[in-house]
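Predict the 3D structure for this chain.
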Amino acid sequence: MPRKGENIYKRKDKRWEGRYIKGHDLSGKARFGYVYGKTYLEVKKALIERKADAKETPLDIKSGEKRDHCTVL
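Done. Predicted structure below.
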């Protein structure tokens, strides 16, 4: 079952960390990107921007190039 909700956590060093799915590798495994900030809202805004960018431009994780379409194996 997929996880629901936000991946925003407070770290021991008092910063906030947000995690988002950056893309998938060729085997379909999710690759994550991380965002750090001093406040919860700062991280939440950055995550919204990064998630929107990730949906617009899918990446091939191994080569780092933009893909026009996704290949399902």
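The chain has one helix and five strands.
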